[in-house]
Write a structure and sequence with these properties.
mainly alpha; 0% strand
Length: 195
């Protein structure tokens, strides 16, 4: 409502110089007209007062408020940018630390894998040596058993042959003891030398 009244008052003030010109006869446009100048000056002063009182204050306040809002937004944007840069630096540092930790874990895993591989190789060599030693012992025991069996067979054959030769059979236990003591006294080198 106030705006409508102001608009009507302003229109009326502006119309007054136009009415003043209608009454005057046609004048030269370049000739100064003191009445027109006075009314123009009065209207300008009134208009300047009205604009200063009602328009320039709110416009200036709104411009200042907008400037403050823009300054606050710029300050906030700078603060946010600095915070983002700080967070980015922290994330990069954390990422670098994670990469370093991952490289360390990989290196540790490689060392552990190499140690396990070395232990497995050493264990395999130890088992191989153990198996070879057991095989040697088994071969030696089988050899000793075969020699003992061969001696027993030889004793049996010698007793049987001697029994047939003498045609009399002595006591088995005493015969066996006699032949075993003879074979024990005979060394393999003496047998091969007698041949």
């Amino acid at each position: 409502m106030r705006t409508l009244l102001r608009s009507l008052a302003l229109s009326a003030l502006l119309a007054v110089p136009a009415l003043a010109q209608e009454e005057a006869p046609k004048a030269n446009l370049l000739a100064p007209n003191l009445g027109l100048m006075a009314w123009t000056l009065i209207i300008f002063v009134i208009l300047a007062f009205v604009l200063t009182k009602f328009a320039f204050g709110p416009i200036t306040k709104s411009v200042e408020a907008r400037e403050r809002a823009l300054e606050d937004a710029i300050t906030s944007a700078q603060r946010d940018r600095e915070e983002a840069a700080r967070l980015l630096a922290e994330h990069r540092a954390a990422l670098d630390a994670s990469r370093g930790e991952a490289q360390k874990l990989i290196a540790d895993a490689r060392v552990a894998a190499e140690r396990v591989r070395a232990e497995l190789v050493e264990q395999a060599h130890a088992e191989q040596a153990s198996m070879l030693e057991r095989a040697r012992q088994e071969i030696e025991s089988e050899k000793a058993r075969a020699v003992a069996d061969l001696r027993r067979e030889a004793v049996d054959l010698a007793i049987a042959g001697a029994g047939k030769v003498i045609e009399r059979n002595l006591d088995q236990a005493s015969n066996r003891q006699l032949v075993e003591s003879f074979l024990a006294s005979v060394t393999p080198a003496a047998v091969t030398a007698s041949r």
